[in-house]
Specification:
This protein has 298 residues and is an alpha/beta fold. The chain is built from 10 helices and 12 strands. It has a 6-stranded mixed beta sheet. Strands 9-8-7-10-11-12 form a 6-stranded parallel beta sheet, with helices on both faces. Helix 7 links the parallel strand 8 and strand 9. Helix 2 crosses helix 10 and helix 5 packs across helix 6. The radius of gyration is 20 Å and the shape is globular. The protein starts with a helix and ends in a 6-residue tail after the last helix. Bound molecules: 2'-monophosphoadenosine-5'-diphosphate. 2'-monophosphoadenosine-5'-diphosphate (ATR) binds next to helix 6.
């Protein structure tokens, strides 16, 4: 398909682009964002439409130029474009700069592209909602990928002061931590290998899994939950399956748990607010998603 035909194919014929929102990804069909945002739009009686934009990498730059030229309100960015789109922005919010990725773009009148990242906010809001007033000080963070970057930044901003990042590839964790603006915060962050005998499980208030282990039902061999204090909280940013083996085991031990649905909803709610100035009806969106995330995987 040539560029012109491709760009034309992106836009719904029956809708003014000045009321358009969407998500850019490749693939994008699996994204829950259109469901979330269109439900919120309908509940609030707003005049927007949120659509999936399936955009391969070689069309990314031209696509966002076209979205800006046509006066689209803004859009989300998902895999695999969150990092590569950073260099295409005219301006970046602080979280996007620190995380090194953009998940939300605002298009100003005149076409200026503002890159934001709402993932750290989404994590912080989900943490507070799932474990109210618990403010975990000592945290074990599992993983060092893109999601870990947002979660680590959220933890630092939320005031966690002793953070241990455990990753299979230690160097990746070290690079991630080196890039955090830690000198402005009272947080000690160390990096260790993700091996059972190194994890400080007796001394943490919260464990957060940001690796993909659990998406296919994998068990976390290295994490012996019996070593955690009884007051410990366990969060997994995975929401499909609804309960990973890590969360099921933590719940069976009587620990407080949370899956990734809260982070998904709250990062979306923040984007929604940036574009529309309105609060997303999060309770309604949550009920809908709980009933529509693949039931067989719950
Ligand atoms: P995302 O952007 O979703 O965070 P990612 O950047 O691919 O995804 O990161 C995946 C994370 O899961 C990484 O921390 C990865 O560990 P490595 O940095 O060592 O690759 C972790 N991960 C993936 N498969 C794993 C496995 N089998 N055991 C342990 N960690 C794993």
């Amino acid at each position: 398909m040539n560029e012109e035909t491709f760009l034309e194919s992106l836009f719904p014929k029956d809708y003014p682009t000045s009321c358009l929102l969407g998500v850019i990804g490749d693939p994008v069909a699996h994204s829950l964002s259109p469901k979330m945002h269109n439900l919120a739009i309908a509940k609030l009686g707003l005049n927007y439409k949120y659509v999936p934009f399936h955009v391969p990498g070689h069309f990314l730059y031209r696509t966002i130029q076209e979205l800006a030229a046509r006066g689209v309100v803004g859009f989300n960015v998902t895999i695999p474009h969150k990092v590569s789109i950073v260099a295409m922005m005219d301006d970046l919010g602080e979280d996007a700069q620190v995380i090194g990725a953009v998940n939300t773009v605002l298009i100003e009148p005149g076409g200026k592209l503002i890159g934001r990242n709402t993932d750290a906010y989404g994590f912080q809001a989900a943490l507070e909602e799932s474990f109210p007033n618990r403010s975990p000080t000592r945290v074990l963070l599992l993983g060092a990928g893109g999601a870990a970057r947002a979660v680590l930044w959220g933890l630092i901003k939320a005031g966690s002061s002793v953070i241990t990042l455990a990753n299979r590839t230690v160097e990746k964790g070290e690079i991630l931590v080196d890039q955090m603006p830690l000198k402005h915060f009272d947080a000690l962050v160390r990096v260790i290998p993700l091996t059972a005998n190194r994890l400080p499980l007796e001394e943490v208030d919260l464990v957060v899994n940001t690796t993909c282990l659990g998406m296919k039902g994998e068990i976390f061999q290295a994490v012996d939950l019996s070593r955690l204090p009884e007051s410990a909280m366990v969060m997994d940013i995975i929401y499909s399956p609804f309960q990973t083996p890590l969360l099921l085991a933590a719940a069976a031990r009587g620990l407080a748990t949370a899956n990734g649905l809260g982070m998904l909803i709250h990062q979306g709610a923040k984007s929604f607010h940036l574009w529309t100035g309105q609060e997303m009806p999060v309770a309604i969106v949550r009920d809908y998603l709980i009933n529509h995330i693949d039931v067989s995987k719950k």
